[in-house]
Amino acid sequence: MSPAEVVRVETRTDASPERVWQLLADPYTWAHWVAGTSAIRDADAHWPASGARLYHRFGPRPLAVRGHTTVVDVDPARRIGLLASALPYALVRIEITVAQAAGRTRVELCEQLVGGLGMRLPRLSRPVQLARNRRSLHRLIELAERGGR
């Protein structure tokens, strides 16, 4: 089965790129902003360096799936490439970029389903990904703008 198309979502904020990156660099904030993530179970001490993992629980109990997200590549303060596993449901390539744009901060989240049961339902998966990613970016920006965790 070939990978699904890339789902792109972007937003802009008055929060600084450094503030947004600070949230991305703290693995324990991810449960607060990644829609569907119910908990961060653990994280490698060298997060967000290449090869580092964070271990999460996705979905509500008792149906929650344990998974992990691995940093594939990173350009600190600018871009992070990830591979998120919530198998058997999804294996997803993710890229988050943070950049200064016209006096504001532009944050883009790109996600591509590359494995799991979601690959069998592309007409359902894409709208779910779009909604989830919009919600996630909204939450990330809320955290960045209010200065909390």
Count of strand segments: 7
What fraction strand?
Answer: 35-45%
Rounded mean pLDDT score: 91
SSE string: EHHEEEEEEH
Reading side by side through the largest sheet, how are the strands ordered? Answer: 1-7-6-5-4-3-2
Taking the alpha carbons of the first and last residues, their distance comes to 39 Å
- What best-fitting shape do the alpha-carbon axes yield? globular
Model regions low in confidence, pLDDT < 50 over at least 5 residues:
none
Radius of gyration: 15 Å
Characterise this structure.
By secondary structure, this protein is α+β, with helices and mostly antiparallel strands. The chain is 26% helix and 42% strand. The chain is built from 3 helices and 7 strands. It has helices spanning 17-25, 30-33, 122-146, and strands at residues 7-13, 37-43, 53-58, 65-75, 79-86, 90-101, 104-115. The chain has a 7-stranded antiparallel sheet. Strand 5 (79-86) and strand 6 form a beta hairpin. The longest helix is centred in the C-terminal third of the chain and has 25 residues, at 122-146. The chain is globular and about 40 Å long. The mean pLDDT is 91.
